[in-house]
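Dear H.,

Thanks for agreeing to be a second pair of eyes. The structure we're designing against is below in token form, covering all 271 positions.
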């Protein structure tokens, strides 16, 4: 058994894979206020389970991967039972980190036993929450080489962005002249302005609604998870931050239902 308190004292970073959260009754029978609340509950369950059945110990760099090793076989069966699926990976970044996009996409592929996903959507925090002071279009440009490399390797079919207004989207397109362009733009609450709608139409971009909060996982949510659920001292809990997260979703297109969904979150000790 692993003691989470001792683990957090000694680790530098760890990554949690929740596995497919649709496979049990815990999530099917509950309504969450927003996707981040669902994620927090997924993390609570996975960390509690991991303490009882620890997976990998810390490696030489004091990193650990925390996941439910028993979930992969069941998910593999589910993926083969549903032949017409659309797989979307959405990556939530706290800063323009191309390596995070690569790790999230490859990890989702491993979890789902797939060779490629249909879409990877990248979300950056609003300017007031961002660690970077660069314009949003420039931040997306910084992560775009990772998207292009994944596309070149055949791991993704399409790329997308989240929460850019028409001016930012146009600025990004201008920066990506002669390069892979986003085919999808997610907008919170279906707030499609005429300018955004017109520009997206002119560039062949699909506009899609979403309800994901920004930032996706706040420092307070991380602190409350450790302190309230696992009785971690406040000072130690406050030294851990969620650096990036992703959600993979598998949609059965024939029935328009989600057949698999899971999260990945990377934590680092900052103090």
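And this is the sequence the design step returned. I haven't edited it by hand at all.
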């Amino acid at each position: 058994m692993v003691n989470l308190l001792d683990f957090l004292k000694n680790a530098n970073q760890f990554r949690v894979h929740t596995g497919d959260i649709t496979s049990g009754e815990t999530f099917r029978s509950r309504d969450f206020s927003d996707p981040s609340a669902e994620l927090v509950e997924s993390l609570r369950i996975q960390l509690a389970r991991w303490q009882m059945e620890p997976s990998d110990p810390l490696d030489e760099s004091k990193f650990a991967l925390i996941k439910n090793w028993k979930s992969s076989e069941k998910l593999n069966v589910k993926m083969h039972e549903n032949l017409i699926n659309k797989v979307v990976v959405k990556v939530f970044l706290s800063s323009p980190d191309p390596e995070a996009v690569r790790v999230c996409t490859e990890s989702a592929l491993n979890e789902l036993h797939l060779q490629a996903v249909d879409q990877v959507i990248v979300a950056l925090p609003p300017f007031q929450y961002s660690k970077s002071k660069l314009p949003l279009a420039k931040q997306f440009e910084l992560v775009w080489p990772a998207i292009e490399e994944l596309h070149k390797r055949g791991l993704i079919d399409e790329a997308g962005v989240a929460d850019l207004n028409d001016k930012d989207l146009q600025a990004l397109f201008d920066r990506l002249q002669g390069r892979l362009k986003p085919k999808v733009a997610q907008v919170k609450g279906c707030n499609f302005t005429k300018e955004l709608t017109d520009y997206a139409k002119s560039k062949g971009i699909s506009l899609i609604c979403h309800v994901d909060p920004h930032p996706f996982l706040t420092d307070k949510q991380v602190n409350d998870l450790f302190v309230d659920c696992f009785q971690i001292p406040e000072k130690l809990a406050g030294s851990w931050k969620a650096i990036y997260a992703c959600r993979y979703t598998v949609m059965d297109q024939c029935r328009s239902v989600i057949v698999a969904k899971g999260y990945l979150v990377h934590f680092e000790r900052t103090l």
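Two observations from my side: The longest helix spans residues 35-52. The CA atoms of residues 186 and 208 lie 5 Å apart.

Warmly,
E.
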